[in-house]
Amino acid sequence: MKKIQHLDHVLVSGGTHGNEYTGAFLARHWLQNPEFLRRASFKTIPLLANQRAFSICRRYVERDLNRSFHPSGEIANPEAFELSRARDIELELRKNCAGGLPSVIFDLHSTTAQMGLSLVLTNREPFNILLYAYLRSKFPSVNAYLWQEPKSQPGFLNSLSKFGFAIEIGAVANGVLNAEWVFKTADLVSACLDFVEFWNCGELPALPPSVPLYSFLNHVDYPRGDDGLPTAMIHPLLQGRDFQPLKDGDPIFIDFKGREILWNSGTAWAVFINEAAYYEKGIAFTVTEKIEVNTVDLLIN
Amino acid sequence: MKKIQHLDHVLVSGGTHGNEYTGAFLARHWLQNPEFLRRASFKTIPLLANQRAFSICRRYVERDLNRSFHPSGEIANPEAFELSRARDIELELRKNCAGGLPSVIFDLHSTTAQMGLSLVLTNREPFNILLYAYLRSKFPSVNAYLWQEPKSQPGFLNSLSKFGFAIEIGAVANGVLNAEWVFKTADLVSACLDFVEFWNCGELPALPPSVPLYSFLNHVDYPRGDDGLPTAMIHPLLQGRDFQPLKDGDPIFIDFKGREILWNSGTAWAVFINEAAYYEKGIAFTVTEKIEVNTVDLLIN
Question: What is the DSSP letter of A34?
Fold first, then answer.
């Protein structure tokens, strides 16, 4: 393997959404017990990103913190709490990372969709793909969704670094600690940190030759009434089928009288099916295309 | 069967907690489509109880509406929104029920606990026990939890009537429509209304000779740290075991380091295990005793 960039600082954040207890409570635990995150070749920084939203068990106080990061710093006078909090997090991180930003960011989330153990990538950096392949070698059910952040809007906490991703686990209800998911998430984070350690030492373990990537195509909203509220629900035959193929003729919605709406836009793979926080964002589910990504080329180049 | 009281007005309410979408959306649907609730011998009144909390997808605006009803009207100047809303609901109902209160109230809730299809009774009125028995004859998985409301505090919406109960279904995340649970809840409500019709006609169908009642013993809180937050979670072996026996030596909590806490208070039956809204109420789960209630005596007396 060619000489690679040494990664000095790794951020592990949770509670970016205050009602996603899995990450928030793990961040709180790791702030008090940092030894779990310690590795020899880099410094790990735990962060409970939105303490104020966490303390009132809400996703956010004024606006979504995970759509509030402007790494280039365009916002001079942020008005909403989360825009100001995003700026403060960036400043804190620069203090902790010798003036720069973290080399890698793992931001912990949970979802009411049945996403299992999943990653939300915002790019196809070889580091991220290889890390994903490593995670799949240890936890075969891990999947990755590739999302393209709009450049015109403030973005994810993990957009502060090109390495790393959001970790999405579920289905878990908001405001609830599910011990199994908490321990699974901690195991996944531990494996992520192990991989950074391998990377820094220049010796990666054997990896699967390819991994599936579910790449964003478009969002699908609920049918809505004049009052803006959904008039139909995710169909029971779609519920829980994240990362599974959706084919023409499959039912996607059902209204309160039992009338069905069928899919008719060609084979695709749905993700974030019935995520609570996306009702207000106009997303019932997101469709993706499945791409098989070769990891061998990434190791050689 | 002896001559029974004719029941004139039945309230079917949802959205008493604004983020419990199952009942809120069903109430909204039935306000627009009341024919589903129509029966020959009585008038059914659909109600979306806390529209304001529903519109912001929160349990309540200022305080729990379902702990805000004072049927005797002690609160002259309610300060919190929900105390005033409770008063308004009572006044509206009196207008709709010929000056009185509804004869029967079914109040729809959902929970993040795995309560299945369950009823929360606040008394052992023969009507309620017989209705429960009827529901079990149609839906064998239905269970009933008997809760004694503290007389010193404002209470449940359904405390406005001695007939009826809260319907609790789950596990469902807050702020989410799960179509299967929505249709199951509608089926349960329909069966409840059918029973009122049988009652009014003085002819009940054949009922199971006895039904199990899970009667409140006490609440169990999470272990908590100095900041008041839980330091341990519901143990995976307790999670989802609502209405099942809990025995000495069974693990109930697990902390973030994997250390377990075991049950040592004798055999009991746990309900509302890991309900999101009860973290702030200091309830990790509630223990009950299981009582077998004879329905034959109720039919004869």
Answer: G
Range with the lowest mean pLDDT among A110-124, A152-166, A243-257, B260-274? A152-166
Distance from C-alpha of A190 to C-alpha of B99, rounded to nearest angstrom: 64
- Of the listed ranges A72-76, A200-204, B118-122, the least confidently predicted one is A72-76
Strands A163-170 and A104-110: parallel
Does A237 reach chain B within 8 Å, measured CB to CB?
Answer: no
A257 touches chain B (CB under 8 A): yes
Closest CA in chain A for residue B253: A179
Q: Is the pLDDT of residue A301 over 70?
A: no
Q: Which of B288, B277, B282, B184 is nearest to B243 (CA)?
A: B288
> B97 CA to chain A: closest CA distance, Å?
28
| Alpha-carbon distance B234 to nearest alpha carbon in chain A (angstroms) | 7
Under an 8 A CB cutoff, do B274 and A235 touch?
A: no
Tell me the residue length of chain B: 301
Residues B17-45 have a mean pLDDT of: 98
| pTM of the model as a whole | 0.95
* Chain A residues in contact with B172 (beta carbon < 8 A): 173
Q: Which residue of B has its CA nearest to A55?
A: B229
Cα A180 to Cα A178: distance, rounded to the nearest angstrom: 6
Task: Flag if A175 and B236 touch (Cβ within 8 Å).
Answer: no
Measured CA distances, B255 to A187, B18, B73 (Å)? 15, 31, 45
Contact residues, chain B, for A236 at CB < 8 Å: 179-180
- Hey, are the CB atoms on B276 and A175 less than 8 Å from each other? yes
**Does the structure show a pLDDT above 90 at A221?**
yes
Residue A78 has pLDDT above 80, yes or no: no
Beta-carbon contacts of residue B297 (< 8 Å; ≥ 6 apart): none
Question: Cβ contact (<8 Å) for A256 and B26?
Answer: yes
Q: Find chain B residues with C-beta within 8 A of A33's C-beta.
A: 256-257
Burial of A2 (0-12, 13-18, 19+ CB in 10 A): exposed
Helix (H/G/I), strand (E/B), else coil: A288: strand
Q: Pick from A111, A67, A134, A128: which is nearest to A242 by CA? A: A111
The phi, psi pair for B110, rounded to 5°, reads -130, 160
Q: How would you label B37-46 residue by residue, b for 16+ Cβ within 10 Å and e otherwise?
A: beeeebbbbb
pLDDT, tens digit (0-9, with 9 covering 90-100), for A229-282: 999 999 999 999 999 999 999 999 999 999 999 999 999 999 999 999 999 999
Question: What's the whole-number mean pLDDT along residues A203-214?
Answer: 96
- The tokens for B186 are 């509608």
